From TrEMBL:
This is SET domain-containing protein. The lineage of its organism: Eukaryota, Viridiplantae, Streptophyta, Embryophyta, Tracheophyta. It comes from the Eukaryota. InterPro entries: SETD9 (IPR040415).
Amino acid sequence: MSLLFRKFQEVVNILAKSPRFARDPRHVQFEADMNRLFLYTSYSRLGENADEKDAEEIVEMASKASVADQQRQVQENIHDQIKHICGLMDEILHPDSPNSTLQLRDSPKRSGLSFAVGNSASRVPQPVDSQTQFLSRSELSCYVKDHIGYTLDVKPSQIPHEQAGHGLYLDGEASEGAVVAFYPGVIYSPAYYLYIPGYPRVDASNSYLITRYDGVIINALPWGVGGENLEFWDGSYQPNFRPDSSEIAGKGSDRFWKMLSRPLKSARRLNPGEALERRNPLALAHFANHPAKGTEPNVMVCPYDFPLTEKRMRAYIPNVVFGGQESVGMKRFGNFWFKSWGSSDQRIDVPEMKTLVLVATKPICNEEVYLNYRLSNSKRRPSWYTPVNEEEDQRRWS
């Protein structure tokens, strides 16, 4: 399987260097990433009985399918996994409720994959059910590992650098294409950038920010390491989480980083909050470190647009949207974003929340999780950062 992936990536790299793509290298990198995600997640969806013939068929499909079709398939593949994970946690925490479980995923052997993505009706408000099983976060983590084969832990990183701080570890075994972590926190669309704590230098003292290709930013700093209950969370500062001094520059006092974690007072009304399961043991993607020189990453980021019509899953998606679920169209011109007031027929039928997850790019077994940060080369990079692929970094931020 790895040989087939390497062969396909050679084709992707050749395509990226083609003169006809020179005008939009950023989009080229997006297509290359989507190709990889299509391969990994499609192979994972076939299950344990997949063979080399199935892998070859997926590669052939990827070479023929449009980027839009691949995006739809990746979304379906990721949703299939997350629905299974959320259904499992729901079953564990609501063992006595007849309606507590989602339909768990079946993994029959298939020779092909459908490109269809199901849509459903608009969102209906859901009452909060606080009658959950009394389990600690660590106990839930053990149950999750027993059922899916892995869970996550946060402990000192093995990277030989004084600024490495804590890292993310996978406890158990996960195969390539598996969703191993959710990226938690507050979601900011470009329309609400000015409300990100520390704006406009939002990344100066916050290493827990991540950006999607569509410009959406997720701030995981307020989430910390999660909690011990199903609770109402509005993205506010969590007192049980204190970043390492190596991870947050200038953390000289509690006052400094509490201010950094707290939204602007005038913005509180724009961040209504929701009831979330803070015990989710996989909501720790923000602790994944960039690999040291000579080490390859074993996960990659994947955009996941969570359909808000999946009401029973909602509590297990560790994010809130700043500004609520209202949709504000934005257009990008160079480095600037402007509001775009399009017609109502441009709106999607199913309301979605734009999140991120980490997908395994190789089998991971009881080891630290490494994510390629792809830092922009337009700014001074930290001393610990060694590019995994300089060309990819340039295309990503071109």
